[in-house]
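Morning, I've got a small favour to ask if you have a moment. It would help a lot if you went through both lines with me. Thanks so much in advance, here it is.

***
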Amino acid sequence: MSRRPEAPDETKDDTSDVVIVGGGASGLSLAHHLAATGSSTVTVVEAPDGPRRPPERTWCYWERGTGDFAEAVSASWSRLRVHGTDGRTIPVDPSPLRYRMLRSTAFERLVHSRLARSPGSRVLRATADTVHDTADGAEVHCTTPDGRTLTLRARHVFDSRPPRSLPPARTQLMQHFRGWFVRTDADRFDPAVADLMDFRVPQPRHGLAFGYTLPLAPDRALVEYTEFSRAPLTTTAYEAALAHYCRDILGLAAFTVESAEQGVIPMTDARFARRTGPAVFRIGAAGGATRPATGYTFAAVQRQSRAVAVALRDGRAIVPAPHGRRALAMDAVLLRALDTGRIDGPGFFTGLFRRVPPERLLRFLDGDTSLSEEWSIGLCTPVGPMLRTAVELPFLSRRSQPDPRIGESPR
């Protein structure tokens, strides 16, 4: 449809069935699944280049088969390892699952290309200023990179931007980390095996810490230092921890740091609202897709996005819970037990990997297990401290939490 020429500062209106605010993992995943159904016109509002646009991120997840985004996968592993504080190695065979890594730039390029070939779908570079309901849907008021204002109207708006503050919670820890993409002077890594948790690093007084190594080639890997605790570290402290892990534990000797990434993921039993108005919904980490006890988000985003796309195709506007009630209840118990120090974090996780079949445990971490499977896993945990915590939780009040300045989850 042709439009008349407009002045640079003039407001113009645009209408779609769906507007998605935010072009990260959750926003683009929903756009991809909506385009696949072909039942809705879709506009993705994506931040222009500048301070509002996040740096490149890494997303990891378990998956069967080839998956929707195989073309953008930068590495995958069929074997995993966990290292205990005592130095013992636990081999983990996740078959039929594979552990996959996506880099945000490749993922965005792939989804953008698919949306460009999908009639009725588009990506708009603009800053979303306000979102509000209207009598017959919702509006998103935007500012384009050249300073013009733009009003987008839609029957439904899905907002993936992080909230200004986290909802009240009984427990809030943070999964905070810094990672180096390193290149070594010789072949030091086995590209077929990823180290999921390495507890040989010094443990903090409160919480737990582990190394995380994803080999990309015999001489290249992403190496991270991660803590579950109440507050993040300084960049200097992360750098010192990474240097110790690379040199003294991995024995890398000479290596070059090619790039770095850093992040904070909330680990909280807060209740995230998935609907903020009759036609406005929250998705992704903003809508509670981050698994509280692990920080993983990407797989839950895919489940949620598929369900939203099917619902809209069938004439229903819903955003289902990304995690079941049982999973959230178990995570709340674990977070409280970790926060109080009732359980030893490294011992808890290494115990699970030693005693639970790997494929079942990984499905559990993704929230894809039955009640009987969860019962069997629960019996492999420190039952006394966990039961004491479960009895205590209903009597604890939810309190407002400090803002950890989170962005989109890197997991």
Residues 298-313 form the longest helix (16 residues). The CA atoms of residues 52 and 195 lie 33 Å apart. The chain is about 25% helix and 30% strand. Residues 325-395 form one domain.
